[in-house]
Amino acid sequence: MEKPALRPAPEPLEANDVAIVTGGTVLWFVGFLVLIPFQGRLSDAGHGLWSWTCLAGAALGLIGIWYCRARRDAIRRARAAAGEPSS
User: Fold this and answer.
1) Residues 72, 73, 77, CA angle at the centre, nearest 5°?
2) Rounded to whole angstroms, what are the CA distances from 53 to 1, 9, 31, 36, 56?
3) How many Å apart are CA 35 and CA 29, to the nearest integer?
4) Is residue 19 a contact partner of residue 10, using CB atoms and an 8 Å limit?
């Protein structure tokens, strides 16, 4: 049986990573703000770490935003140096 001819792989899709990570960071921080008024009840029920988990997610999201911006800028610089059009 003959194998079908393979097509070349398509170019990878570009996503707006900064916007995606920023949206997730905002959601983690909103979760923290929503849970703060219930901290006493959450602690009594054994779920006191939920609000601090949200705060940690927001803090890590800030690091993610910094990383994604640095990556985006490095990709743009590399494309400009190679003479490719930037997107």
Assistant:
1) 120
2) 56, 40, 9, 12, 5
3) 10
4) no
Task: Say which residues have a Cβ less than 8 Å from residue 35's Cβ, sequence separation at least 6.
Answer: 42, 50, 51, 54
pLDDT computed for residue 84 by the predictor? 72
Q: Which amino acid is at 21?
A: V
Please say whether the beta carbons of 22 and 65 come within 8 A.
yes
For the question of whether the overall pTM of this predicted structure is more than 0.85, the answer is: no
Q: What are phi and psi of 77, to 5 degrees?
A: -65, -40
Tokens of 80: 């400009």
